[in-house]
Amino acid sequence: MSVSTSPTREQLLRTAERLFLTDGYDAVSVRAICAGAGANPAAVHYHFGSKDQLATALLEARLTPLWADQLMSIDTSRASVAALVDVVISPFVEIQHDPAGHLHLQLLARFVHANPEAPWHGAWFDLDRWADMLVAMVGALGHDQARRRWALAFELILSRFSAERPLSDDAVTSLTEFVVAGLGQPCTPATVTNPAAVSS
Question: 19 phi and psi, to 5 degrees?
Fold first, then answer.
């Protein structure tokens, strides 16, 4: 699969975005995308590999710029979990009112829920990077547990922002507080009782 940034590749992304927006993801075929872009019928396969991979490339291209700079500037030794969550959620608040932005949220939710092994390539679409940041902020939290917390957090965030109706300010506040509480909960080892140590 080519990873070039050729004009054809960009035209395929723009055409797919337009068709997904007007007809819905499921109704759009690879052939229709190629035809709409004025490209060879095999162009999607050549540049992306599949329709799903085209969709994930589209999401990375459109969503990464929304938060990449702010996330890169976060100092995990000083920043709070609340500040990190705010960086994540704030762009979603803005784009949920835009038809194209809402489409991106719906597609992202689709792939997170239905395609957990979707072929992501961007750094900020990898849970391991998010887990590393959370581990640096929350004491005694293991990487695997941090990864599970983020998986649950993103699932909740996306399910709410991809709904048909935009979230109200109060709903955004409640969602943010809930996610911050879940991610930032201090990790305490579970108490294990050894039956053999209990005297009869």
Answer: -70, -40
**Backbone region of residue 29 per phi and psi (left: phi > 0; alpha: psi in -120 to 50; beta: other values):** beta
Measured distance CA(180)–CA(35) in Å, rounded:
45
User: What's the 3-state SS for 113-161?
Assistant: HHCCCCCCCCHHHCHHHHHHHHHHHCCCCCHHHHHHHHHHHHHHHHHHH
Residue 32 is encoded by which pair of tokens? 């229709």
Between 187 and 33, the more confident residue is: 33
pLDDT for the residue numbered 122: 78
Contact predicate 153/146, CB 8 Å:
no
Cα angle 160, 164, 168 (rounded to 5 degrees) comes to 60
Total residues belonging to the chain: 200
User: 11: helix, coil or strand?
Assistant: helix
pLDDT at 185: 92
Residue 144: partners with Cβ closer than 8 Å, 6 or more residues away: 131
pLDDT of residue 197 exceeding 80, the answer is no
The model carries a pTM of 0.81
Q: Which amino acid is at 152?
A: L
Residues 54 and 36 sit within 8 Å (Cβ to Cβ): no
